[in-house]
Amino acid sequence: MREHTSYNYYKVVTEDIKNYISENMDMLNHNFSDLEEVKEYLNNELWCDDDITGNMSGSYILDSEIAKEYVFDNIDLLISAIEVFREDYNILRDFERCDVIIRCYILSECIDRAVDEIVEECNDVIDDKTYNIA
Hints:
134 residues
């Protein structure tokens, strides 16, 4: 019997965003004036990206049973998302849609996390190179 571990939406969505950024480096050609513009751009682009939220097709996971497990592990997030988006509680009949609602609900925060982590990683590389110069 496998040990059950709770699904971490924040971790998964943040990693998906970081992967999107690394695969779409051409987005940096937009000449953003600051990180807030980058984050706003990402929010607009990723809101309906099936690889990040599943919002375009209505499903990220494409498996109702797995979606049900993830949603039950994070019912508090779902309740918050339903309240913020003013969704009808009848949505609870569609676990894939519930999963998408959660991903959309945390998208902005995960974008912040992903961008901050990438900036921190870049700063670490710069610091490492600075201190290792002979």
